[in-house]
């Protein structure tokens, strides 16, 4: 599963856990690290961690292993590196502070 299919799958798994304001950003021409970024919001530390855990678990169930996961213990901003897609699950205050959509648009 690559590119568009992976991006859609991961966004759906975040949505399954009631992630808010899910945005997908195409960074093919802007980044050599990944092709897409998914940015979404969780309402609390526990919610952020649960969203990220569900995305990672569902990916593993489909035979996809995350290349890295960072921030799960803190639950303020969790990043899942899925290769072609990076998933950022953030609390609202971190999302407003770092403005990833604006940075990568």
UniProtKB/TrEMBL annotation:
Keyword Cytoplasm among UniProt keywords: yes
Key words of the record: Cytoplasm, Repressor, Translation regulation
Origin superkingdom: Bacteria
Cellular localization per UniProt: Cytoplasm
Classification via InterPro entries: Iojap/RsfS/C7orf30, NT_sf
One matching Pfam family: RsfS
Keyword Transferase assigned: no
Family membership: Belongs to the Iojap/RsfS family.
HAMAP family noted in UniProt: Iojap_RsfS
Function: Functions as a ribosomal silencing factor. Interacts with ribosomal protein uL14 (rplN), blocking formation of intersubunit bridge B8. Prevents association of the 30S and 50S ribosomal subunits and the formation of functional ribosomes, thus repressing translation.
Assembly information from the UniProt record: Interacts with ribosomal protein uL14 (rplN).
Official protein name in the record: Ribosomal silencing factor RsfS
Gene source species: Vibrio algarum
């Amino acid at each position: 599963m690559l590119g568009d299919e992976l991006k859609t799958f991961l966004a759906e798994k975040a949505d399954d856990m009631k992630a808010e304001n899910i945005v997908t950003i195409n960074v093919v021409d802007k980044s050599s690290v990944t092709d897409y970024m998914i940015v979404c919001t969780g309402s609390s530390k526990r919610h952020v961690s649960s969203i990220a855990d569900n995305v990672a678990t569902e990916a593993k169930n489909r035979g996809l292993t995350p290349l890295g996961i960072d921030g799960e213990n803190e639950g303020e901003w969790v990043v899942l590196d899925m290769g072609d897609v990076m998933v950022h699950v953030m609390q609202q205050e971190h999302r407003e502070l770092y403005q990833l959509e604006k940075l990568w648009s």
